[in-house]
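Session log. Operator J.P. requested a structure for one protein chain; no other inputs attached. Running the standard single-chain path with token output.
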Amino acid sequence: MMNKDYTPVSCELYSEYELHIMHQDHLKLCYLGARNLSRIETLLPINLRTRKKAEFLIARSLCGISRVLRLDRIRSIEPREKTMG
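Structure written below.
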């Protein structure tokens, strides 16, 4: 039984997250945070996880803070340009 509050993302979108993890792409994410407030943050996706019949993105912020975001709460993703260095 799927978590009744969770809306599964498409296989195509899930695969896109997997590719960004493999390529270590930083992503500008817009997502619903606490109290359903929109947040925009640049994160490095680390892994995907399924827990209690919902899917999550494990990521790290630019200042090293870990984030666990439910995939259906992410509203948009935008790959960030890689910098040379």
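Operator note: The chain is about 15% helix and 45% strand.
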